[in-house]
Amino acid sequence: MVKNLVQQRFLRPIVGLLRQGVTPEKIALSLVSGVALGVFPLLGSTTLLCTMAAILLRVNLPAIQLVNYVVYPLQIALLIPFFRLGEKLFRAAPLAMSAAQLYAMLRTNLWHTTIALWTATWHGIVAWCLLAPVFVGTVYPIVRWLLRRVWREELPRGAQSE
Fold this sequence. Notes:
Elements: H1 2-19, H2 24-38, H3 46-57, H4 61-70, H5 72-90, H6 99-108, H7 110-154
Helix pairs in contact: 2-3, 2-4, 2-7, 3-4, 5-7, 6-7
C-alpha cells in the first residue's frame, strides 16, 4: 500500500517530467532545493523562497513547491533543533520553548518575548545557512544519479537526449 502510494504520488510525476524533456539534473535540483528550502526555520517564508529559487535556478516550479509542501511537517520538527544549534553557535542562553513557558513570557512582557523569538529565529537561520549547503551538496549527486537510472530504464532510447 505504501509502495503504491509512493509510486503513484511521487515516482509517476517524476517519470512524467522526464518524459516531457525535463533533465534528471533539473528534477534533482528541484527536489533537493525544495527539501532544503522547505525546512527554512522561518514559518511562512518557504513558498516565496522556493519560487525565487525556481526562477533563479530555472527548475520546475510545481516540483519544488510540491516538495516544499510535503516537507512542511519536517520544517516544524526542525524548528527547535535549528534554534538550539543557533543558540550553541552564538553561545546564547536557551529560549524557553514549551507552550506554557511561551504563554507566560507573552503575558509578562510581549516586547521581550518578541525580541527573544526573533533572536532565536535569526540564530536558527544562521544554523540553517551552515547546514543547507552541506545537505544539498551531499544529497543532490545521489538524487541525480538515481534519476539518471530511472531516466535510462523508463524512457525509450529515442526519447533520451543526453
